[in-house]
UniProtKB/TrEMBL annotation:
An example Gene Ontology molecular-function term: endonuclease activity
Keywords noted in UniProt: Endonuclease, Hydrolase, Nuclease
Keyword Hydrolase: yes
Chain positions covered by the region annotation Disordered: 97-121
Name of the protein: Endonuclease-reverse transcriptase
Top-level taxonomic group: Eukaryota
Biased segments, Polar residues type: 104-121
Length: 121
């Protein structure tokens, strides 16, 4: 986004949304969509792997202790559920079918390309 704003010579003090910059350049958020697709592909792969339960521990497990003050970080589970529009239980179930999961990843990326809004926050 910094580069796109640089091309259009948008000052940092100008109140312009990222979406207006993208619309003016007639482009979309390709990098963010590629990152989300890679995350979904890896999660599907890791959940199907029966030799290790690391991903299940990360997705379903909770850590003991207290977190620091301030805004809570965005978790992997939150990223996954917003990227594909499914609950965690549905993600675990659908990822067991490799072909179906690949189709779901493709469809979620296609819908992300058509959706608008600040998805990078």
């Amino acid at each position: 986004m910094w580069f796109y704003r640089r091309i259009l010579r948008v000052k940092w003090t100008d109140k312009r949304t990222n979406e207006s910059v993208l619309k003016e350049l007639k482009t979309e958020r390709t990098l963010l969509n590629l990152i989300n697709a890679s995350k979904l592909k890896y999660v599907g792969h890791a959940l199907r792997n029966h030799r290790t339960s690391l991903m299940k521990t990360v997705c379903e497990g909770r850590l003991d202790g207290r977190r620091r003050k301030g805004r809570s970080p965005i978790s992997l589970v939150t990223n996954l559920t917003t990227a594909c529009g499914l609950s965690l239980h549905q993600i675990v179930q659908k990822s067991q079918d490799r072909g179906g999961w690949q189709q779901k990843v493709r469809s979620s990326i296609a819908t992300a390309n058509t959706a608008s809004g600040d998805a990078d926050r």
